[in-house]
Specification:
Residues 2-230 form the ABC transporter domain. This protein has 230 residues and is of the alpha/beta class. It has a domain at 1-72 and 195-230: 3-Layer(aba) Sandwich (Rossmann fold). Helix content is 35%, strand content 24%. It contains eight helices and eleven strands. The chain has helices at 38-46, 88-93, 104-116, 132-146, 162-179, 190-196, 214-219, 223-229; strands spanning 2-11, 14-22, 27-31, 53-58, 61-62, 73-76, 150-154, 182-186, 199-204, 207-208, 212-213. Strands 1, 2, 3, 4, 5, 6, 7, 8, 9, 10 and 11 form an eleven-stranded mixed beta sheet that branches. Helix 4 (132-146) runs parallel beside helix 5. The longest helix is centred in the C-terminal third of the chain and has 18 residues, at 162-179. The protein is globular and about 50 Å long. Bound molecules: adenosine-5'-triphosphate. Adenosine-5'-triphosphate (ATP) binds at residues 11-12, 14, 32, 34-40, 203.
Length: 230
């Protein structure tokens, strides 16, 4: 279970609070106006940004003071975080061993992950030799290899066209279903929230609200969300 207990985070004049919990295995969309604090919320959970007060807990363990790498969390950002000078296989290998000392079995896991996301045989290529959609798949495969129970997606597929994005969301849902991972995904597109996430966290007015059923939220949005959705 993910628990955000009286979390307060500030950046200059900006202040965001969060006080809710979500069950393990939940798929949660994070939606709200530009600048409302969606990325800030993910950063606090992932440990890239410190909370002023409150606690971030996972399964009863207090993560609040832990380094990002020590948390049971993988974050995938929009830029995909692939190192341009490393091959796709090496980039994936970093998901297993940061020093890239891989055993034979690890190489087999990398190959299996590539196959799982539809990139069989592309391990020797550099990221620049893949399309945007393929790079997204590679980033997802690396997240898969890290096998952490909490996956944070900060608009990782925003640069993809609608069909590719739908494919990627379906793939994430499938992979998360297999591993039981809990997923929080920032999106600007209510259609993505509706297709991917049964529940949605609305970030607006300085509050990351407790996740609520996505369909009901989108059918009857509060004013700040209605204004944003247009
Ligand atoms: N380094 C900083 N110093 C001061 N304020 C900041 C800093 N970084 C971000 N902010 C402010 O924090 C607020 C939240 O930013 P954040 O990126 O979390 O919003 P967001 O909802 O993810 O926005 P978007 O949808 O545009 O990506 C914004 O109002 C922004 O201006």
């Amino acid at each position: 279970m993910l628990l955000l207990e009286n979390v307060v985070v500030t950046q200059g004049a900006f202040r965001l609070t969060a006080d809710w919990q979500a069950a393990a295995g939940a798929r949660i969309a994070v939606i709200g106006p530009s600048g409302a604090g969606k990325s800030t919320l993910l950063s606090v959970i992932g440990g890239f940004f410190g909370a002023d007060s409150g606690r971030v807990m996972w399964d009863g363990v207090d993560l609040t003071r832990m380094d990002p790498g020590a948390r049971p969390i993988t974050t995938v950002f929009q830029d995909q975080n692939l190192f341009p000078h490393l091959t796709i296989a090496q980039n994936l290998g970093l998901g297993i061993a940061p020093g890239l000392r891989l055993a034979r079995a690890d190489h087999a896991r990398v190959d299996a992950a590539l196959t799982r996301v539809g990139l069989a045989g592309m391990g020797p290529r550099l990221p620049a030799q893949l399309s945007g959609g393929q790079q997204s798949r590679a980033a997802l495969a690396r997240a898969l290899l890290r096998a952490r129970p909490l996956l944070l997606l900060d608009e990782p597929f925003a640069a993809l066209g609608p069909a590719l994005k739908a494919d990627m969301l379906a793939l994430v849902a499938e992979l998360a279903g297999e591993s039981g991972a809990t997923v929080l995904m920032v999106t600007h597109d209510p259609k993505d929230a509706a297709s991917f996430a049964p529940i949605t966290c609305l970030v607006a007015g300085g509050v990351a609200h407790a996740p609520q059923p996505t369909a009901a939220l989108l059918a009857n949005p509060p004013p700040e969300l209605a204004a944003y959705l247009g």
